[in-house]
Amino acid sequence: MLVSARVLKWLLRFYPPLFFQRIWTVKICHDFTGITLKISKSVFNTNYNHSIFGGTIFSAADICYPVLFHQIFSNKGYSVAVWSRSAEIHFIKKITNKVVFSVNLSAEQIQEVEVQLNQSGKFIRYYPIVICNMIGEVCADLKCEVYIRDLTFTKPDSE
Fold first, then answer.
1. What Pfam families does the database record attribute to this sequence (predicted)?
2. pLDDT at res. 156
């Protein structure tokens, strides 16, 4: 779905799986090179240790790179399928209050993906996400493996 950053922000804010886990989209850069999310603690996402469920933390991080890459390449005219293929998360410190974190893509990262899509029609890479609490302590460290496929790619004929 090709939408503006502002519309996408509001769609994600009220997307039920995120909304009921209290995952709030704070900002999406106009060119889709960055996203900022906030996770607030609530009765819907608190575990028996009085901290935020690990699944809520993972759900927030899981959407970042696929959403950004999909919008970037759709805006460039590509027809792509993008998803998190796998992920690894390490919970370092429990989160007992809200957290705000950002994911950003550089021009070099976007260019690297585009070159690979044009050469082979797909791209697979791990990207890091670090989630810190409000005083800057690292609470979760993730590696998300992003899979991107150009749906219109045709292999060049070899002669």
1. DUF4442 (PF14539)
2. 74
Cα dihedral 116→123→155→80 (10° resolution): -110
Q: 5-150 has which fold? A: Thiol Ester Dehydrase; Chain A (3.10.129)
Query: Taking a C-beta distance cutoff of 8 angstroms, is the pair 122, 116 a contact?
Result: yes
Whole-model pTM: value is 0.93
Q: With left for phi above 0 and alpha for psi between -120 and 50, is residue 81 left, alpha or beta?
A: beta
CB-based contacts of 135, cutoff 8 Å, min separation 6: none
Domain ranges of the chain: 5-150
Q: Calculate the alpha carbon distances from 130 to 55, 62, 91 in Å.
A: 15, 12, 10
Pairing of strands 23-28, 34-39: antiparallel
Q: What count of residues does the chain have?
A: 159
Express each pLDDT in 24-46 by its tens digit.
Answer: 999 999 999 999 999 999 999 99
